[in-house]
Amino acid sequence: MTRGERKDPPELVASAISLMRGHLSDGLSVADLADHVGYSRYHFSRLFAEATGLAPMEYLAALRFAEAKRLLMVTDEPVIDVCAEVGFSSLSTFSRRFRDAVGTAPAALRRLAVDIAEHPVSPFEVTDPSQPRVLVHLDLTAETLRMPRHTWIGWYPRPVPIGLPAAGMLLAGGGPVRLPTCLHNPWLLAVSMLADADALDQLAPSQPLVAVHRRPVTPAAPPHQIVLRFAPADPHNVPLLSALASLRN
């Protein structure tokens, strides 16, 4: 791959992600991405991680797993074919890493989609009530709340929605709610979608409203309250990989 024109940091990230999306099945390397945007591997990796919260190869893997989720739910392709389409040569490696990133195995995701279609998800929580609580306000517009919505708020070890959250709640409506904190998982993330969304849009939402609390929260010193301000997911956000509905079982 020839070295590209040097780009400013925001354009760098957008250009690198665009290249990733167009080459999910190819063996892109950090060197390929850095050459594409005209930076050294070191400076590219640093700027990309600062902008997205993930190293370039972690972000590429997230895009691959997001596409794998979609393919598993909209096609009947064998898992081994989906594995190859998103750039993995080893089915066992793909299955293990998919389970870590999504929270359920590839074949189990298909069964979960069928289960959601037959038994719609209703509000539930997976929390430790003994932990200190924080009052969480959901900043959703009145227009947004005209249609019934489900909103998941959950605790993650990093400020990215990869893997299942360690704890959280699925809420109906606009809150507020007193949420127990979670030891060793200080980052509060949220996603809101229509309550009647189909299985595909619940497990791989195309246009969710998302929010991230930008400071870690610890049970030892939780803030009195948190306001989660929702906005449409940016195309460059880390895709929502967590199969949140699997937590209700």
Features:
single chain, 249 residues, 3-stranded mixed sheet, alpha+beta, Arc Repressor Mutant, subunit A, 36% helix
Describe the largest sheet: 6 strands, antiparallel
- The strand count comes to 9
Category by helix and strand content: alpha+beta
Which geometry do the CA atoms define? globular
Pfam families: HTH_18 (PF12833)
GO molecular function: DNA-binding transcription factor activity; sequence-specific DNA binding
Domain HTH araC/xylS-type: 14-112
Keywords: DNA-binding, Transcription, Transcription regulation
Summarize the structure in words:
- There is one protein chain.
- The protein has 249 residues and is α+β, with helices and mostly antiparallel strands.
- The protein has 2 domains: 52 residues, Arc Repressor Mutant, subunit A (Orthogonal Bundle); 128 residues.
- Helix content is 36%, strand content 19%.
- The protein is built from 8 helices and 9 strands.
- The strands form 2 sheets. It has a 6-stranded antiparallel β-sheet, with no helix packed on it.
- Helix 1 crosses helix 2, helix 2 packs across helix 3 and helix 4 packs across helix 7.
- It starts with 8 loop residues before the first helix and ends in a 17-residue tail after the last strand.
- Keywords: DNA-binding, Transcription, Transcription regulation.
- This is AraC family transcriptional regulator.
